[in-house]
What does this fold into?
Amino acid sequence: MNFKTISSILALSSFGNIAAGFCQKACQPNIVFILADDLGWKDLGIFGNTFNETPHLDKLAQNGIRFTQAYAACPVCSPTRASIMTGKYPARLQLTNFINGKRTDPLSPVIPPQWKPYLETEEVTLAELLKSKGYATGMVGKWHLGGQDSQAPWSQGFDYTRMIGKNGLDYYNYSVFLDSYQNEFSDHGAEYLTDKLTGYGVDFIKTNKDSPFFLYLAYSAPHVMIVPRADKLGKYLRKYAGSEEKHNPYYAAVVESIDDGVGKIVATLNEQGLLGNTMIIFTSDNGGLAMDELGPTPTTNAPLREMKGHIYEGGTRIPAFMSWEGKIKSGTVCDTYFSTIDYLPTFCELTGITELPEKVDGESILPMIFNPEKTENNDRPLFWHYPHFSNQMGRPAGSVRAGNYKLIEKYETGQLELYDLSNDLSEETDLSGSMMQKANDLHQLLVNWRQSVNAKMPLPNPDYKKSIK
It folds into this structure.
């Protein structure tokens, strides 16, 4: 089995009959892409959460297509955000950790490789592509792809930028850069950050209602620190004692603010008569945080194994759905897997962009969105490369999924693990010993892929000394 070459990717991503048909009905549809930060696979009611209250998100998902096997390209934020903007694997970009990630382990035989804590300015972003097609482009919220002026969203294709600045983890004492580092809004407890970001998104939609637009609304919530609005907290504290599965009431209140924000975005689109010509996407940048970090444990990803910062399903499988009134069939559930690298070619096909940047790794999932019942069983390989030590105790590893099978390689030891996700969603039963040929085949696929994207591997730790027993 060989992974797809760039030529086949370009062919699959070219402007096809499906996109042509929809563009005839809705020329240059608006795109609203809403990204939560650290939201877990099971944190919304529509995905099975019985504690958090997310009526707006649940309704939006029910009115469109919900994906049960959506993946982030990395178990931490910055690489996944870069994959959305470029359609490329983080390993190809050499942006493989969150931009402030510096953790090492002196007891490990390896150290992280050299990597780029920023998105290269030479990379062509989704915003730049859509802008070339006449779209108004807006970025609101968390960028986290580099701090230099040339790396900021206003230099990467966005006309309207409201980027979180100082104190990005503080929901009540923060700043926002307005289109440049010279124009800064500072808050000192007056307005909740999630609400402020929603307001900026509403303003962008109203200002650009008469032209095609792309809004990238990247909430910082529910990332720690978990600081909710006081008026949303009480009911969750009261519910806590009666809940069989213990949840974090503070986290639930933070998630509800996202839900309210999305509700206002949808209401604004409705008021402006734009719902029929707007594709709305909602997802997360990585798996949920399931350990104490800057406070009590926020959430659980059960039955998935592990969490943010880990290469297992709990770190990479994420909630995702799309809605487009009158275009995407309501109540659709799609079980075919895909990755955040696929959004750029999907939106390009949707809007008639036929020439993609060089070395795009993603594939358009437009046929899957509009005709999920016709989607064939998919054994397309997806890859992950995380040669770092995460803040959540994740360790250097890589993985590949092809069909139902997923192989993990631990970079410190070379150990391989093989799981059949169709029967073992929790990744509890390692099949690498009983299915050695399958494990070897997938491992070779992973090795070949790493070579093709010039993935940087961990380096020997010069200070490592093996213990003598």
